[in-house]
Each structure stands twice: as C-alpha cells, then as structure tokens.
Design a protein that fits this description.
Rossmann fold; binds magnesium ion; alpha/beta; single chain; binds adenosine-5'-diphosphate; five-stranded antiparallel β-sheet; six-stranded mixed β-sheet; 34% helix
Length: 241
C-alpha cells in the first residue's frame, strides 16, 4: 500500500514540487502519468525512500517514511520494495546470476540461490544466468533487472518508464511481465510513464489470468501546473491516457 498526503519535494535552487494525494491499496496497480519533467521520477524516489520529502506524509507498506534516517530507510527498502529503474544499473563485470546475488549482499541478507533460479525461470531467462549484461538484448536485460527487483518478494514494485525506447511488441511484453510478476507476488505495482500506450496495455493485461481476480487499477496524473493534474483515481474500462 501507498498513502501520501500533501507530499512536496524541493531540489536545491528549484521550485517546490507539490504532489496530489494517493491511496493505493495493497495489490493494486497505479499508473503514474504526466509529461517529462512533471515529477514522476521524483515521486518514485520518495516512495522508494531514496530521498526525503520536504513536507507532507508518506506511508509505504505500513511504514511512515517521514523522519526515517537514511540507514533505516535503506534497510526498510531492502526488505519491502522492488525498483525497476529507467537505467537498469546492472554491473557489467558480473554475470546475470551474480548481479542478482549482489542484491542479497547489498541488503545484508543470506544468499538464496534457489530463489534466484526461481525468479530467472519465472521470467524465462534461466538459460542466461552465466551471461554478462553486454551479452543480453535490451528486453533480456530488463527481465534481469525485474528479476532483481522482485527477488526479495517486495510488497511494492516501482517501475520508471519501463516501455521507454521499446517498440509496441516489446512494450506489451514489458507491461505484461510487470503485471503478472507483481500479481503472482501479491505486490502493489506502480508504473511511471509518459508513454500513452501503457494505459491501454495495462487494461488489456488486467484480465485476472490463472484464476486470480483482476487487480484494482488507479491512475494519477502529474503536471507542472496545478489545474491539469489529479490524484489517484480508478481507471475505467476502455479509458486511454
Ligand atoms: P519526470 O520523471 O516526470 O520526467 P522528474 O521527477 O525527473 O520528472 O523531474 C521533475 C522536475 O525536477 C523537473 O523540472 C526536473 O528538471 C527537476 N529535477 C529532477 N532532478 C533534478 C535534480 N537532480 N536537480 C535539480 N532539479 C531536478
Ligand atoms: Mg522520469
């Protein structure tokens, strides 16, 4: 779950960024839309506990992130949150398997080889475990980064522009993968994007496959100007962005 109230952030020397309120129940999907520069990545960074808000309230996976020390936020993030960044940050010198193993080390958690194999298999990339990132296609590298994000069964999964620079087929695959992975893990999913294709793709994929219920879908629009933005609202069937 994610709950925000009057959330604000200020880059040094910049104008304050003020965000609409969000209430995202556990297991729901939030489409965070808005033009480039409207604050999507900043909002994700706050929700991930990477940066502290300048003001307001922020609760993620049952934890208030306001006033938390950076080390406490780091420990909380490692246990509760998966992040698929726009730039994937895979270590080029390490194999796919070791990139995932590194995530356990970074979190100070005992390595779980079986869980790494399980995630690689679930994402269809188990045969790539011994490759280096330079030997992967863009889509394969994104799957590795997604495996890393869900490795420790996060309650909340954040994806920043996951369809950027992907063609239509690859964008559909990326959205489907995020949705099926978060649903099978019971995680709340947030996709931040300025890509108009994603709302339609999310709806098309939200059919409740494998006997599961379709996830509740919300959309929040950010804007540089107050009047053209809105807080988290339910996405209605057939609505585009
Ligand atoms: P989006 O992800 O929607 O493109 P961002 O969250 O990256 O938007 O940026 C929101 C605003 O904050 C923009 O005006 C951007 O220029 C500014 N900004 C982003 N990062 C920094 C930074 N590190 N320092 C100063 N300003 C920044
Ligand atoms: Mg961004």
């Amino acid at each position: 779950m994610i709950r925000t109230r009057s959330l604000a952030f200020c880059y040094s020397g910049g104008q304050p960024l003020c965000f609409p309120d969000a209430d995202v129940p556990q297991g729901a999907v939030l489409l965070l839309s808005g033009a480039s520069g409207s604050g999507k990545s900043t909002w994700l960074s706050m929700v991930a506990g990477l940066v502290a808000p300048a003001g307001g309230q922020l609760e993620v996976a049952g934890q208030s992130l306001v006033g938390l020390s950076q080390s406490a936020a780091d420990a909380w993030r490692a246990r509760n949150l998966g992040f698929l960044p726009q730039r994937l940050h895979l270590s080029p010198a390490l194999t796919v398997f070791d990139n995932l193993a590194l995530a356990y080390w970074a979190a100070g958690v005992t390595l779980d080889r079986a869980r790494i194999q399980e995630c690689l298999t679930a994402l269809g990339i188990h045969d790539l475990a011994q490759r280096k990132p330079a030997q992967l296609s863009g889509g394969q590298a994104q799957r590795v980064a997604l495996a890393r994000a869900v490795l420790q069964r996060p309650q909340v999964l954040l994806a920043d522009e996951p369809s950027a620079s992907l063609d239509d087929d690859a964008a559909r695959d990326a959205v489907a993968l995020l949705q099926s992975t978060s649903q099978s893990e019971g995680a709340t999913l947030v996709i931040a994007t300025h890509d108009h294709r994603v709302a339609a793709l999310l709806q098309a994929e939200n059919t409740g496959k494998n006997g599961t219920q379709p996830a509740q879908m919300l959309r929040m629009q950010l804007s540089k100007t107050e009047h053209s933005r809105f807080g988290a609202q339910a996405i209605k069937q057939g609505e585009g962005v």
